[in-house]
Write a structure and sequence with these properties.
The complex is a heterodimer.
Chain A lengths: L4 H8 L1 H10 L15 H4 L4 H8 L5 E2 L3 E4 L10 E7 L4 E8 L6 E6 L7 E6 L5 E9 L2 E9 L9
Parallel strand pairs in A: 1-8
Antiparallel strand pairs in A: 2-3, 3-6, 4-5, 4-7, 7-8
Chain B lengths: L2 H14 L8 H12 L7 E6 L32 H8 L6 H6 L4 H8 L5 H14 L4 E4 L8 H5 L3 H10 L3 E2 L9 H11 L5 E2 L5 E2 L10 E6 L2 E8 L4 H4 L8 E2 L4 H13 L4 E6 L3 H10 L5 E4 L10 E5 L2 E7 L6 E10 L2 E11 L9 H11 L3 H4 L2 E5 L12 H14 L3 E4 L13 E3 H8 L6 E7 H16 L13 E3 L2 E4 L9 E6 L2 E2 L5 E7 L4 H6 L4 H12 L1 E2 L8 E2 L10
Parallel strand pairs in B: 1-2, 2-3, 3-4, 7-9, 9-10, 10-12, 15-24, 16-23, 20-25
Antiparallel strand pairs in B: 1-13, 5-8, 6-7, 11-12, 13-14, 15-17, 16-19, 18-23, 20-21, 21-22
Helix pairs in contact in B: 1-2, 8-13, 15-19, 16-19
Classes of the chains: A alpha+beta, B alpha/beta.
Chain lengths: 156, 573
């Protein structure tokens, strides 16, 4: 391919790009929404406790949450996961990892009028189910996918 | 060359070949005509080879007698071996075709029909198919630049040049990437520029997800616009060292693929072909989920499948093929495209019998030239084998057994592991083991031998982990290699078991493996960057020393696991 975004960044230089993003309002500093930080949920040791701390109870399985994640992680330390919610009134999207020491990896608040599409990278210690939890109109929905973490090698 | 001339040449070749066989020159000419006089069908033609693993010269290659499929893959192609395969495809036992597709009576049949593959012989067949099928495209499914000494020593240049001379139009890859991202880029941007399209819709930059290679190309074949979409091996950074392609991400990306197919159709493609290095099980699943692909020309799992599997999906039907390995086969797909769509097809997986196809002079000259600097090194006789040596099989092969015994002897360990690679050629009883043959089993860019202290628990974990890569009920969770070969340790395997519960009864010299005890395990081909930093004697040096000291290699006694629940499986003979 002709040019990747990496090449563009390299050519444009880190400093000027930072200024550009800042000017465009893409980088924000200032007060974070510390009040919204659900400490208990983020420190929960398993999915059940995390769901409880989030007030999600037992979410219904939903086919309207589309999760994109690899079947086998290329690098367990940085596994790209993404989710799109097609459920009307989506308020938040969270990623929960069944076998991590703390289950809740990330939670995104979706302001009204925003496309409910998020992506992030998560660290997986071992092969595990990764769950996507969606809150919409006060109700909770969930889907999951197994992501395998393997020692690798021996292929081909 | 027209058809009549080609048949004449085949007759001449057959007449001067095979002095050892009981078959007459006439019988050979008849076989050649039966195999290679393939009438043209339709108006759109694709020729496909894959996983040649840099075998420029004709070789012996024994197909497996164990190729287990579990869950939905049980008892259907490609998981059929021997008689079960012949029966399924209606192939007569004792024929050249039966020899090409199965291990049956291998030694005798190999002496009868001779070696297979070789780029000079493949080139003759390609030229003939192109002559009888004007406009035909030649597709290379990858694993072309790795698998031989000369490919390793020239960083794949011998195969890059051979591919160009062969007339490859489109290529995708897997082991190519173990030469490093920069080397691949260099070849694609220079040697291939304007000549060969290297495609991979599933390789993106790890940071922003930008495409690294073009996803597809549309080429007219006799006026029919045909899209070829590339699918590189999705688990390259897992099955092979990630440090070779640190900035690239692979994977099975159905949405990206669907987008590429839809885009190609929107641009006017009347037939869409996926050139895939997924492996056949993955391709069979993919074909149920992605719409608009007429045929998947597949590789990776080295399955020589005589006829396509026809898979239904929401968009219609998709043919799924797999074209074997080591230059042994050429797939010929004829499509009849009418009214903007594929209405009918013919497919043949042609075995390349070196004795039935005369060598192409131009290709032969190239092969001689690239080998010239290395002939002495390649030709060193290390030992003589009294038994048949081969690699393929779900659990072990005699050549791997030899590697395991070499590792345990040279590293003085009670246990050895050897990767379940599917490449590697075969040697007949009584043949010398040359340095070239050893390299055919070991030529990789991370050849380090290792000795690792492992607890019994770790050893079980590794066997379970690799077992799951082979026997997971969902093909998307498989990697397509065979089971890690294990020396010194016996075990029971239940391929139908759940993840983490397939391996049991592990014992070493009759004593149960102790989960808490530490054992020394020899191995090679580690994929981690740490292992690269530590280094280690290359496997070929260790094995060359071992073979020279032994001089004569007795027939191998294979160490195989006891199997559970596999009675009657068509992938087990």
């Amino acid at each position: 391919m002709d040019q990747t975004r990496r090449d563009v960044l390299r050519a444009s230089g880190g400093a000027s790009l930072f200024a550009m993003l800042a000017a465009a309002g893409l980088l924000r500093s200032g007060p974070t929404l510390a009040a919204d930080w659900n400490k208990k949920a983020f420190e929960s040791k398993n999915i059940k406790d995390a769901l409880e701390a989030l007030g999600a109870g037992s979410p219904a399985d939903s086919a309207d949450i589309v999760m994109t994640a690899p079947e086998i992680a290329e690098n367990g330390a940085v596994v790209p996961v993404a989710a799109v919610s097609k459920i009307p009134g989506t308020e938040s999207i969270a990623f929960l990892i069944a076998k991590n020491p703390t289950a809740l990896a990330a939670s995104f608040n979706i302001p009204s009028g925003t496309e409910p599409s998020v992506s992030t990278r998560v660290k997986l210690a071992q092969t595990t189910d990764v769950h996507v939890l969606v809150k919409a109109n006060g109700k909770y929905y969930m889907t999951k996918k197994e992501i395998k973490v393997t020692i690798g090698g021996c292929g081909g | 060359m027209d058809r009549r001339e080609f048949l004449h040449v085949l007759g001449m070749a057959a007449a001067c070949g095979l002095p050892l066989t009981a078959f007459s020159a006439r019988a050979n000419a008849q076989t050649a005509a039966r195999l290679y006089d393939l009438p043209r069908f339709g108006n759109t033609h694709l020729l496909h080879f894959t996983d040649c693993h840099a075998q420029l010269l004709p070789v012996y290659f024994r197909e497996p007698n164990v190729n287990l499929g579990v869950a939905d893959m049980s008892g259907r192609p490609p998981h059929l071996v021997g008689e079960a395969l012949l029966k399924h495809f209606g192939i007569k036992a004792g024929t050249a075709e039966a020899h090409a597709y199965t291990f049956l009576d291998f030694e005798h049949a190999a002496r009868t029909y001779g070696k297979v593959g070789g780029f000079a012989h493949l080139a003759t067949l390609v030229k003939q198919m192109k002559a009888s099928r004007p406009g035909a495209l030649l597709l290379d499914g990858g694993d072309t630049w790795q698998g031989s000494a000369t490919a390793l020593w020239t960083q794949g240049q011998d195969m890059v040049d051979a591919g160009k001379l062969l007339g490859v139009d489109v290529m995708t890859g897997h082991w190519e990437f173990t030469l490093g991202a920069e080397r691949v880029r260099h070849v694609v941007d220079n040697d291939f520029k304007g000549k060969i399209d290297f495609l991979a819709q599933n390789i993106k930059t790890a940071d922003f997800g930008d495409p690294v290679f073009p996803p597809y190309v549309i080429k007219p074949i006799n006026g029919v616009p045909v899209a070829i979409v590339g699918q590189a091996f999705p688990y390259t950074p897992i099955a092979n060292p990630r440090y070779m392609t640190p900035d690239w991400s692979f994977g099975i990306q159905e949405e990206t693929l669907q987008k590429a197919v839809d885009e190609a159709r929107a641009k006017g493609a009347q037939a869409v072909i996926l050139l895939s290095h997924n492996g056949m099980d993955v391709d069979l699943k993919l074909a149920t989920r992605v719409r608009g692909i007429d045929a998947i020309l597949g590789g990776h799992t080295h399955d020589g499948v005589p006829a396509p599997t026809i898979v239904s999906n929401a968009g219609g039907k998709t043919l799924v093929t797999n074209a074997g390995s080591n230059g042994k086969f050429l797939g010929v797909l004829d499509l009849d495209v009418k009214g903007g769509k594929v209405v009918d097809f013919r497919y043949k997986l042609l075995p390349v019998f070196a004795n039935l196809l005369p060598a192409d002079a131009e290709m032969q000259a190239l092969i001689t030239r690239v080998r010239a600097p290395y002939t002495e090194k390649l030709g060193e006789q290390l030992a003589l084998t009294e038994g048949l040596l081969y690699r393929r099989g779900s659990f072990n092969g005699t050549f791997d057994q030899l590697v395991l015994e070499g590792l345990m002897a040279e590293k003085d360990t009670p246990i050895a592991f050897s990767p379940g690679f599917r490449w590697g050629t075969s040697l007949l009883p009584g043949e010398p083991i040359l340095m070239e043959h050893l390299m055919d089993q070991t030529a990789i860019t991370y050849p380090y031998t290792t000795v690792t202290e492992m607890t019994g628990e770790t050893i079980k974990f590794i066997l379970e982990d690799v077992g799951d890569n082979l026997f997971n009920a969902d093909p998307y969770y498989q990697q397509g290699g065979d089971m890690v070969r294990v020396g010194g340790l016996s075990y029971t395997c239940d391929p139908n078991g759940r993840t983490g519960a397939r391996i049991s009864d592990m014992s070493i010299k009759g004593k149960p493996l102790d989960a808490a005890k530490t054992y020394k395990v020899a191995g090679w081909a580690p994929v981690s960057a740490e292992a690269k930093a530590r280094g280690g004697e290359p496997i070929w040096d260790l094995m060359a020393r071992y073979l020279r000291s032994r001089k004569v290699i007795k027939p191998m006694q294979l160490e195989l696991p006891r199997l559970k629940g596999m009675e009657g499986n068509g992938g087990l003979a």
